Amino acid sequence: MKLKTLTTAIILATVPMTGAFAAALDRSGQSIAAFLQPGNYFEAGISVLDPNVSGNVKSGWTPNPAAPAVAIGLENTSVGEMAGDYYFPSAALKLQLTDHFSFGLIYDQPFGADAEYKTDTKKTAALPGPLAPFANQGAFHNGTEGTAVEVKSQNISVILGFQPTENWNIYGGGVYQTVKGDVQLRGVAYGGLAAFGDYNTNIGEDGATGWLAGFAYQIPEIALKTSVTYRSEIEHEVQVTESLGTSGLAATINPVLGYTPGQTEITTPQSVNLDFQTGVMANTVAFANVRWVNWKDFSIRPNDFGHASKFIPGKSQGFDLVAYTDDQISATVGIGRKLSEQWAGNISIGWDSGAGNPVSTLGPTEGYWNVGLGAQFSPTPQTFIAGGVKYFWLGDAKAQVASDFGTASYVANFEDNDAIAYGLKMGYKF
Prior knowledge:
Blueprint (H helix, E strand, L loop, with lengths): L5 H6 L29 E12 L3 E2 L11 H4 L13 E11 L4 E8 L4 E4 L24 E2 L2 E2 L1 E15 L5 E19 L11 E22 L4 E8 L2 E10 L6 H8 L4 E7 L2 E11 L2 E10 L5 E2 L2 H7 L12 E2 L4 E11 L4 E10 L6 E2 L7 E13 L2 E12 L2 E4 L11 E3 L2 E13 L1
Parallel strand pairs: 20-23
Antiparallel strand pairs: 1-3, 1-25, 2-24, 3-4, 4-8, 5-8, 6-7, 8-9, 9-10, 10-11, 10-12, 11-14, 12-13, 14-15, 15-18, 16-17, 18-19, 19-21, 21-22, 22-25, 23-24
């Protein structure tokens, strides 16, 4: 059997969970692989992530340097499980319109977050004088109500490709993207003495457009295929509704702000994907993916949050609700093998750099290592079902609140955490 017949059979078995638990808000990995399949092609898949992320409040930490940590009386320093399970679907359609032109649609959910601090760490000690209003607050909780974040996005990419020869494919197109989210901050960790310890924001869904461009080179006889794809940043002007609460410093700030819904700019990051595969022996293909995402230039500063942050002592310029110090680089390498006319499988190893450490308390992990296994069954030459699993060793992280961004200060340690991702994909060649 020629190696070119293995290209689809092997690589599709990697299943749709390239990003899964990547740095910052990265999720799907934004693969272009479906558009580069030969002929007419359709696929649909789903990935599910089951993370296990917990930590402990930093030993000796206090929200007020003038007050000893023991005065706060934290009953339980364990942060507890805070990362929620989530899933994201994907789908793609590719049509070979002529010998030289192709058309594609790709749907995915590239960015997202789902986290909630569920463990009650309220204080039970009798607190003196100025600390008394915070007697029912833990580091990330007010009573039994915890800090939480949910962010969702959707992408539809419309792509047109030009193939001047059998070896080259030059492509580009437009991207329509939506984003929305909810954040609530609880506890004395945020802003010192609960300045933001009862903050809520609802980010209304917004749609905006961007673009992508790339090229691919292939030698079908040896199953060689490489591609480089650039995706632009996408600027959103979202409607944000905010409230700051009524206790502590918030009681002073609230009358000044007035809390009128305002526009907030959120720019999702630009990225580059490099994909490579080649036949290495009969019935065997090696593959690799490298991804860069420009998280260092990403931030979210809701309108009223930004104004209120300037009231924090020493923060006259204000600060962002979410920001990152580093760009993300991730890589996956693996081997796929055709086992029979109907079965193929693969094994892969992945690494992610993270987006800086300390990290936000809203996503307290710093990169990962993973190992994955995939299998594909093809009941007919035109159809297949692929499934796989990946195990993630999540990087240890120091979690800091927004007001400490850019410093070495942190509130909690998150160590020895992991996650498992599952993927399922079905495809049809026609």
